[in-house]
């Protein structure tokens, strides 16, 4: 397995990682991807490590992917979902985590609806903290697996033209992707209705294109985001039907382009809104490769952070 150390003992956001950190995670994930393709998909690397997956918000991919990554590394794993816990009786995040830690837990994987929850926790406890998505802030392992999937398909992320399409304003995936892709030397644009793109997004070094057809003509890769209706306190778009007409990606739209592009999506997909099935399930899509790579990337992150003080 790759040797080397990350410059941080927590993974709170891509913002905190150096380019060397990201490259180390990728090289470590390469090794674990080989492991995952063997008949016996397990290594003893984290045999003495106990990890708690604390999910205060719904998840399918991230939760299962972390749990599988931990089990493939032979860690002991406990899982927590807020809905079936004493959080419903009023227990605080910190009280909950301190109770979990008193059971001799070494690492915390946290998904939480509040921005900064993982940062807050990392300042209060001794265990390693991994942010599995905090509100509209960051989702670092998603950005790492997305960039890793681009590297796998194209050999390198540097110089690639990537457009992030859709509800950029409410998306932690968008922010983490922008930071990660820019660090790795990609060209990044965002595209969506003006109401769903932050006014000052250019300060992150990205360009804005409101016309989807122009954005798709420019790019090599489109990373398509879900409309996050659960985070919209007011109405940002007239209707989902109108959104699909102007910003939905379908086969006809791709057929008009003068080159082929790759389609990505972090999931879950609103089929027929941001992405039609004739694209999501087509040879242009690497959506399931992203999910597959998520396990190797999370194994790499857990392995590199375990035991760091
Ligand atoms: N991509 C992602 O975070 O999906 P889940 O919400 O299902 O974990």
Notes on the structure:
- The protein contains 11 helices and 9 strands.
- Helix 6 (172-183) links the parallel strand 5 and strand 6.
- The strands form 2 sheets. A 5-stranded parallel beta sheet has the order 7-6-5-8-9, with helices on both faces. A 4-stranded parallel beta sheet has the order 2-1-3-4, sandwiched between helices.
- It folds into 2 domains: 14-138 and 291-306, Aspartate/ornithine carbamoyltransferase (Rossmann fold), CATH 3.40.50; 140-286, Aspartate/ornithine carbamoyltransferase (Rossmann fold, 3-Layer(aba) Sandwich).
- With 309 residues, the chain is α/β, with parallel strands linked by helices.
- The mean pLDDT is 95.
- Helix 1 packs across helix 11, helix 5 (140-154) packs across helix 6 and helix 5 packs across helix 11.
- The structure holds phosphoric acid mono(formamide)ester (CP).
- Phosphoric acid mono(formamide)ester (CP) binds at residues 59-62, 133, 139, 142, 266-268.
- The total strand number stands at 9
What is the overall shape?
Answer: globular
Give the terminus-to-terminus CA distance.
21 Å
Instruction: Specify the CATH homologous superfamily of the largest domain.
Output: Aspartate/ornithine carbamoyltransferase
Q: From the structure provided, what is the oligomeric state, counting identical versus distinct chains?
A: single chain
Topology-level CATH name of the largest domain: Rossmann fold
Radius of gyration over alpha carbons? 19 Å
Q: How many distinct helices?
A: 11
